[in-house]
Specification:
Organism: Rhodococcus sovatensis
CATH topology: TIM Barrel
Keywords: Oxidoreductase
Strand order of the largest sheet: 1-2-3-4-5-6-8-13
CATH superfamily: Luciferase-like domain
EC number: 1.-.-.-
Radius of gyration: 20 Å
Structural class: alpha/beta
Protein name: LLM class flavin-dependent oxidoreductase
Strand content: 15-25%
CATH class: Alpha Beta
Pfam families: Bac_luciferase
């Protein structure tokens, strides 16, 4: 059994071929897609966060809106770039959105990916300290965020406050108990997966890794997951971790599917470069259900994960993305034992 959700990058473009031609359409359709996914029996609705781009950027208003419109589906991000975040304000936003949803937030965060602009986090008021870099700044923001989510008091109260204070040091409000255990780290390699485990965060691994050892992508990712679980066990955290992997999976069950994805049936891993470093990209899976079942059964990283996030082509619209999810849930997942 696996939890199955979707991951949307929230693209929009004014192209007449796109079903999402504005930010407004993307935001409203993101809510509608979560509602549709819940009705289909999917487990999660996750959204990518990018700044300075025609994509979703500020996640918490969207997550709160989805939380108010749905009842059971997990709502998350994959991922929030912590270089841009004020962890104090983020703690308040996350607590509010989690309470609105009834404790269904699953927040994926990370160091961030290549940007649309040069050092964009500086425009948000964040500059690495002397002797550090932007990656260390992201980890510092993350450590502060995790500490704040514990809900411990740390701020000295005003002796003459506007409203009465409880005794002792004050914490940020609203506090949502349990959210600390629902934070995921988007790890790009084996080392950062181990770091995530040390910090007590769940592991979110996507369709690319910022390293290459020459083995197929799914095997390298499976090793990443194995190292994460071992480090978690060594750290003796009090709760069980979760692991998600993202995949592009397109069951071909009608002619529309074939027109969109029929040419991707011979997908394979690719090796390229990101930010000057080598990276391995996982292949897309497209084909008739019987073929997908056979190929996905051999994916070692999927076997090792408890959650699979289906990357959806959001510019094709809510109805088509819901169709892709329904095809996976009914034509593929049961045969693999995911349902």
């Amino acid at each position: 059994m696996k939890k199955i959700g979707f991951l949307s990058f929230g693209h929009w473009t004014p192209s007449p071929q796109s079903q999402t031609r504005s930010a407004s359409e993307v935001l409203l359709q993101s809510i509608d897609l979560a509602v549709a996914a819940e009705e289909l029996g999917a487990d999660g609705a996750y959204y990518r966060v990018h700044h300075f781009a025609n994509q979703l950027s500020s996640p918490f208003p969207l997550l709160a809106a989805i939380g108010a419109k749905t009842d059971s589906i997990e709502i998350g991000t994959g991922v929030i770039d912590m270089r841009y975040e004020n962890p104090y304000y983020m703690t308040e936003d996350a607590g509010s959105a989690d309470l609105i949803s009834g404790g269904r937030l699953q927040l994926g965060i990370s160091r961030g990916s290549p940007e649309q602009v040069i050092e964009g986090y500086k425009y948000f008021g964040h500059v690495p300290q002397d002797g550090t870099d932007h990656a260390e700044m992201a980890r510092d923001h993350t450590r502060t965020f995790l500490d704040l989510l514990e809900g411990k008091g740390f701020a000295e109260p005003n002796p003459r406050p506007m409203f009465p204070n409880p005794p002792g040091l004050l914490r940020l409000e609203p506090h949502s108990a349990g959210l600390r255990e629902r934070i995921w780290w988007g790890a790009g390699n084996r080392q950062t997966a181990e770091w995530a485990a040390e910090q007590g965060m769940n592991l979110m691994s996507s369709t690319l890794l910022t390293e290459d050892t020459g083995v197929p992508f799914h095997q390298l990712q499976a090793e990443q997951i194995e190292r994460f679980r071992k480090t978690w066990a060594d750290a003796q955290h009090s709760h069980e971790p979760r692991v998600s992997v993202s995949r592009s999976i397109f069951p071909i069950v009608n002619e529309t599917d074939r027109a969109y994805f029929g040419r991707q049936t011979e997908g394979q891993d690719q090796v390229g470069y990101i930010d000057g470093g080598i990276a391995r990209f996982g292949k897309s899976y497209a084909g008739e259900p019987d073929r997908l079942i056979e190929e996905l059964a051999a994916d070692e990283a999927i076997a090792a994960a408890d959650t699979v996030l289906l990357t959806v082509p959001n510019q094709l619209g809510v109805d088509y993305c819901a169709h892709v999810m329904e095809s996976l849930l009914t034509e593929v997942a049961p045969a693999l034992g995911w349902r």
